Amino acid sequence: MSDKTIQNNLDYTLFSWSKQGELNPINASWAKGSHVFDENGKKYLDFSSQLMNVNIGHGNQRITEAVTKQMQKLSFVYPGMATDVRGQLGKKLSEISPGNLNKTFFTLGGAEAIENAIKIARMYTKRHKIITHYRSYHGATNGAMSAGGDPRKFPVDSQAMPNVVHVENPYAYRCPWNSSSIDECGKRAIAHLERVVQFENPNAIAAILFEGESGSSGCIKYPPMYLKKVRDICDKYGILMIDDEVMSGFGRTGRMFGIDHHNVTPDIMCIAKGLTSGYLPLGGVIVTDKIADYFNDNPLTIGLTYSAHAVSCAAALENLKIIEEDNLVQKAAETGKYIEAQIEKMKEKHPSIGDFRNTGLLGCIELVKNRETKEPITPWNAKPNKMEVTNKIAAKLKELGMFTFVRWNWIFVAPPLTISKEEVDQGLEIISQAISIADKYYNN
Question: Whole-prediction pTM value?
Fold first, then answer.
């Protein structure tokens, strides 16, 4: 059965981001808590919540019950109709979102949330340019991919969405301005951002779109003042601030949203992933009262057949109850502090650990060949013939029974918010064994 399952997948389906002839996927059969099991019974400790979204852990049957109950009443109506569960979920999101973010347009996932946030910003401001970070990922649809700076867009960027302008991140570990501290890097990044705003004509810029907390581009920590200064620039020039919370939302960072660490209210907030913990597809665009009021008298010309899908809304509503009732936001903050302390100890054992950047349970270990030069063990956007060390590390993790996101010289640490201390210790021991491979490439 196992071989047949994999063969059917390979023969009749296409996989993301991969040469289709070189695939050897895990044959996932069932999942519970922090583990995914294959058909042969081998278990994999999920140390990246699959794609940083299974916040409540796998197999929580409260979601099954909520979805079943909803489907017994109503599964789908067109998005022009009102449903009880849609209204309840919208009200709940209003209660937990920052400031006066009170109205949500529901999408199918994160990329569509980004697409529609950009459309709303352009309609509202009557401007066209969007500023984003080079080191960012906002999704894989054409507009979202264009907005991100991730190199996976290169094969298709000849047809990129126009009027996206990228700026450098305040990446303190590799500061583009050779700063001596994270604060100095932040100040220089803000000065760079404002210069670009001025060069690009402030009256043409609809929005600045940044992640609430950096994710798959390396968990780049924001300097403490950075997002407040971004907010100030937006207010100064009449630019909207769009906050991408697709990965960093719903407790992932030890706060309900990543931006909550910075006491800033964006004009538009994009959500998905942890909204349902991946149990069903759902995303959303939450706007302030001012933007919502504008569309009372102006048409909101966006739409999706499955917007506010009742079954997905039911999954989200129950998921948010679980996050609150099980105190998972606070648990993420506490577990994150424990992981930070343990990895600090690991640095003494593994010279190849150059940096560890973490917020709650969204973290990334950066591996280097030398701590002084910071030469990465694998270059950013490395060609296949430069991926030897990364491939060995990824293979070792899989062999030892771990699933996590490994990219270039990064190993991501983002387990479910429900993970136990014992499981964290087990996971860090597996990662330690894998990092021993990188240590062999270290140059003193």
Answer: 0.97
